[in-house]
Amino acid sequence: MTSDAASNSTPRAPADGGSVVISVDAMGGDRGPTAVVAGMAESADKNPEIRFIVHGDEAQLDRLIKRRKVLAGRCDIRHAPGVVAMTDKPSQVARKGADTSMWAAIESVRTAEAGAAVSCGNTGALMALSMLRLRKLPGVNRPAIACLWPSRNPQGFNIMLDVGADIRADAPDLLQYALMGSSYARNGLDLELPRVGLLNVGTEEHKGRAEMKLANDLIAAAAEAGNFQYVGFVEGGDLPGSQVDVIVTDGFTGNIALKTGEGTAKLVGEFMREAFANSIMSKFAALLAMTSLKRLQKRIDPRRVNGGIFLGLNGTVVKSHGSADATGVSAAIKLAFQLAKSGFQDRLAARVAQGNAVSAGTDVATESGAIS
Amino acid sequence: MTSDAASNSTPRAPADGGSVVISVDAMGGDRGPTAVVAGMAESADKNPEIRFIVHGDEAQLDRLIKRRKVLAGRCDIRHAPGVVAMTDKPSQVARKGADTSMWAAIESVRTAEAGAAVSCGNTGALMALSMLRLRKLPGVNRPAIACLWPSRNPQGFNIMLDVGADIRADAPDLLQYALMGSSYARNGLDLELPRVGLLNVGTEEHKGRAEMKLANDLIAAAAEAGNFQYVGFVEGGDLPGSQVDVIVTDGFTGNIALKTGEGTAKLVGEFMREAFANSIMSKFAALLAMTSLKRLQKRIDPRRVNGGIFLGLNGTVVKSHGSADATGVSAAIKLAFQLAKSGFQDRLAARVAQGNAVSAGTDVATESGAIS
């Protein structure tokens, strides 16, 4: 019921396998529109179904896009004179940013011309504009940013949220993160019954702050109707592990865990390069092991997991790393494409509505099989 | 003045280069007394100044110690019939644990027979007993656990605290962590003017929770008198970086960051082993690069940084990983030895007293040069 009502408001892939439209903010990233257009070309090449609405400086974009044969006839360029800088304050952008490519990119999702938006720009500004223009889903108190985390699980990644949309989260927010994260896991990682864990400083039930115990009870009670398995408290070491698929935490903790993990992986990678550069023998060994080392690099390459997704809004927005190159932008676009095509937004809205109904005591659990 | 008064209460290395006594809880670890005694032998072998008071099952310890020639005449075995299990609740151990090896190990520090205690046991119980028996330093609200973190800095490690003594910390607690952490950096890492940073979700001054801004102001104001350099907010990615030596955070966030970092390093290590096991060519390459790979492994080996130190008590307690092997136990003992020998405990007490005086508006800054 909720699902049907919502599906009218979001563009979906036509049943005949037609195109999926992604709205792209081409101006926000550290590397400018060249990297963004290169990333668009990379994903267009891999995916015949994809089309773009591209926002930014028209003359520049026209020139860059004309150079890419694979993009011919697949881009709708929309001129936006303003650019959101990395240093701009979110509140200022929300007040004065209506002429920017970021604003326009979100607008294409709001008007349902595009199935999802992608931006490499300023995270705070992108969240502020997304909340301002798309508005929160009914019943969502704090939207969240979800990221993918390399893991030992068969799917290769775990999902963690919130990684920085909001610096705090109460127990009911954490419950919503569990519902939204498991919906994302079903649609983004094809997991039928995602395993959800709540990040804490120990796995025993008595551990952690009072709001953690309350959240633990709320999430456990919602698991069956929410179509996920709740594994209870998990620790930092479980983020890359195989015991859980979705890790729920507040945005302060999640952001610090994300950056600690990235920093540690980078340090180990640097130490490895130094180790192999150490002697002629080890340089020769590195040459021999080239294929293996490249495979390793690919497995831990942060560009492959590029794309934080904003959850809890009326529309899908994917935040790419500011420093993303063509490969990174392409990964973020692929994620946006996959979510737009699967009708994720409608399913998420239905899932959140159901969660609210359950919290409010209304029995809609009998319908749970129909929503993913 | 404070320094002189305090120095009477703590055993120090005699001026003639005599022995330093470490109190060891031999029973608590996952691997039992065999690994602990092996670790004692390893550090005794490297360090002629070290002597031990060893707590646990007398018959078992006597047998194990007699097998190690290097330990002959250097161990004082004290029988303790009780063992604290990893699953024991801290509150129970505090009530009923007086016959345990952990309790006795702390007692040797309290009575000033030993300069520091080392245990591989249950962290929560060890902290509870340490607080109960050693008591908090005057003016310390929440003690902290500080850990070493592999980094790009010349000293090879950064210090992070609190990593799990308490799940919360107010702004004045974070100030004390800054004072205690920089004192540890001076005595444990030989840094004259440690750089201190406060862990947050961004480096801009407006970022983070309200208590972070207050702590930011407090720590900045205390830097000169506290003999450290304050670099302001740092992010998760700075933990293994070279911009800061001491990272201050609450125990909830610190514990999750620590375990996330450990888990990520472990994952990358596993991926690396899998990459090299992939083909005959890469196996051959691994053989050639053996020396380099071993050097790398040593650099990221968590056993080398084994030893969380409890700060803010009347005595030095080092917590070793529960799963520590001989190398890990030896690293923890080395840390305890270094701190006991440097008279760290007195200096820390003086530093905290000074911080309290500064907070209270008393001017003791003229003496700051004398305390490290």
Automatic annotation (TrEMBL), chains A, B:
<keyword id="KW-0808">Transferase</keyword>
<dbReference type="GO" id="GO:0005737">
    <property type="term" value="C:cytoplasm"/>
</dbReference>
<dbReference type="Pfam" id="PF02504">
    <property type="entry name" value="FA_synthesis"/>
</dbReference>
<keyword id="KW-0444">Lipid biosynthesis</keyword>
<comment type="function">
    <text>Catalyzes the reversible formation of acyl-phosphate (acyl-PO(4)) from acyl-[acyl-carrier-protein] (acyl-ACP). This enzyme utilizes acyl-ACP as fatty acyl donor, but not acyl-CoA.</text>
</comment>
<keyword id="KW-0012">Acyltransferase</keyword>
<dbReference type="GO" id="GO:0043811">
    <property type="term" value="F:phosphate:acyl-[acyl carrier protein] acyltransferase activity"/>
</dbReference>
<dbReference type="GO" id="GO:0008654">
    <property type="term" value="P:phospholipid biosynthetic process"/>
</dbReference>
<keyword id="KW-1208">Phospholipid metabolism</keyword>
<dbReference type="GO" id="GO:0006633">
    <property type="term" value="P:fatty acid biosynthetic process"/>
</dbReference>
<dbReference type="InterPro" id="IPR003664">
    <property type="entry name" value="FA_synthesis"/>
</dbReference>
<comment type="subunit">
    <text>Homodimer. Probably interacts with PlsY.</text>
</comment>
<comment type="similarity">
    <text>Belongs to the PlsX family.</text>
</comment>
<dbReference type="InterPro" id="IPR012281">
    <property type="entry name" value="Phospholipid_synth_PlsX-like"/>
</dbReference>
<protein>
    <recommendedName>
        <fullName>Phosphate acyltransferase</fullName>
        <ecNumber>2.3.1.274</ecNumber>
    </recommendedName>
</protein>
<keyword id="KW-0594">Phospholipid biosynthesis</keyword>
<comment type="pathway">
    <text>Lipid metabolism; phospholipid metabolism.</text>
</comment>
<keyword id="KW-0963">Cytoplasm</keyword>
<keyword id="KW-0443">Lipid metabolism</keyword>
